[in-house]
Amino acid sequence: MVAAIMLSAFAIIVFINCTYYFIFSKFSFLKPLTDLKNNSLPISLIVCAKNESENLKKHIPFWIKQKYPDFEIILINDASSDDSLEVMEKFSASDNRIKIVNVVNIEAFWANKKYALTLGIKKAKNKYLLFTDADCKPKSDHWIQEMANQFSDSKQLVLGYSGYQKKPSFLNKLIRFETWITAFQYFSYAKIGMPYMGVGRNLGYTSTLFYENNGFMSHMYIRSGDDDLFVNEAANSKNTAICFSKNSFTESIPKTTWKSFWNQKKRHITTAKNYKTFHKIILSLYFIANLLFWVGAVSCFFFIPWEWATGLIALRLLTQYLVYSKTLKKLDETGLLYLIPLLELFLICFQLSIFISNIFSKPKHWK
User: Fold this and answer.
1) Cα–Cα distance measured from residue 76 to residue 48, given in angstroms and rounded to the nearest whole number
2) CB 75 within 8 A of CB 88
3) pLDDT band at residue 363, thresholds of 50, 70 and 90?
4) pLDDT value at residue 299
5) Is 50 helix (H, G, I), strand (E, B) or coil?
6) Domain over 43-271 is classified CATH 3.90.550.10
7) pLDDT score recorded for residue 107
8) Mean pLDDT, rounded, of the chain
């Protein structure tokens, strides 16, 4: 009796896992659109920086040399205490496409990135806005072009991919895996008409969409979430496009210590609790199904015949391998495929620890 119940329960868990992989396969086997015309829409690239002088020195040259006919760069100095403003002014003096917004903290919006971004968006002269971070580098001189190509009369929001630099450490592999699986999910759900988030390191939308949704006002009190909460609120099946050609990627500098990565993910997970209810349900179910799979994979061997347990585990892992291998290659995240079981199990434990930790302590926010 116990064996039959355990077998049925584990089979249901594997079925739920495989159902998610079927959803994800809609993106995994998707090819980039090749019939898009090269847009020449005027673009405003917006970068908000707080104490990022060194990253600005390194990355502004990459933004300047983008091969796109019509764009400006809005650099926002968000009340920095280092020489970020001086760096911005130096580049602005030699390139008239660069505009500067110098934000001074006020009591109502103290250290609020959304307030700074709002000022930058108001400064932009163009309708089409592209966002990245100061520590982000485009992986191609055609980044703006690739993202701009996705805009149309109906598509007012473009989700892009931003990975992390590859380093020889397990922490780096975990960061890249977590970033990749997050993008994998938001691309997949957007593909089936349920966009729920994006990342500000590579994100585009129109000022029209921003103002129609009253900007960040509904979640201005939440200091993080200028990207995912806005997308969660404003995106729908008709107005959202995805961009995943390799020339459209950006690359960020990864955290190098477990503590800094821990604090970053505490902040991100806290923001997710403000998603729409249905989005929270499907994301939570995915996490729970993964957790229960690994718990069941171990416990089932003690209660059901090993042949059944091995068969169900193999079915789930092979389905996962087939779907994941295509997307790892698509998003240029090589070197992770054979570590997926270990990385997945470690990430589940890591996230579960953060969930528990957030119950007892609030995360740190924008610098």
Assistant:
1) 5
2) yes
3) low
4) 83
5) coil
6) yes
7) 45
8) 91
Name the one residue in this structure whose structure tokens are 């955290």. Answer: 255
Residue 165, helix vs strand vs coil: coil
| Whether the Cβ atoms of residue 38 and residue 339 lie closer than 8 Å to each other | no
- For residue 73, what is the enclosing H or E element? strand 71-78
> Can you tell me which residue has the tokens 């996490």?
287
How crowded is residue 140: how many other Cβ atoms within 10 Å of its Cβ?
17
User: Residue 224's closest CA among 52, 362, 122?
Assistant: 362
Query: Shortest CA distance to 217 belongs to which of 123, 108, 126?
Result: 108
Q: Which runs of consecutive H residues, i.e. helices, occur in the chain?
A: 2-28, 53-64, 84-94, 113-123, 143-148, 170-191, 207-212, 228-234, 258-272, 277-299, 306-330, 340-360
| pLDDT tens digits along 83-137 | 999 999 999 999 999 999 999 876 445 558 999 999 999 999 999 999 999 999 9
Q: Are 170 and 345 in contact (CB under 8 A)?
A: no
pLDDT tens column, 135-176:
999 999 999 999 999 999 999 999 999 999 999 899 999 999
Q: Which residues, at least 6 apart from 86, have a Cβ–Cβ distance to it below 8 Å?
A: 53
State the amino acid at position 43 in one-letter form. Answer: I
97-119: string of b/e by CB count within 10 Å (b at 16+)? Answer: ebbbbbbeeeeebeebbbbbbbb
- Per residue in 27-77, pLDDT (tens digit) is 999 887 666 678 889 999 999 999 999 999 999 999 999 999 999 999 999
Domain-wise residue ranges, the chain: 2-28+277-357, 43-271
Quote the tokens at residue 18: 């495989």
Distance CA 129, CA 126 (A): 7
Closest CA to 243 of 326, 333, 322, 151: 151
Q: What distances in angstroms separate CA 101 from CA 27, 56, 71, 123, 126, one per listed residue?
A: 38, 15, 17, 7, 15
**pLDDT of 301 strictly over 80:** no
Spatial separation of the C-alpha atoms in residues 289 and 142, rounded to whole Å:
39
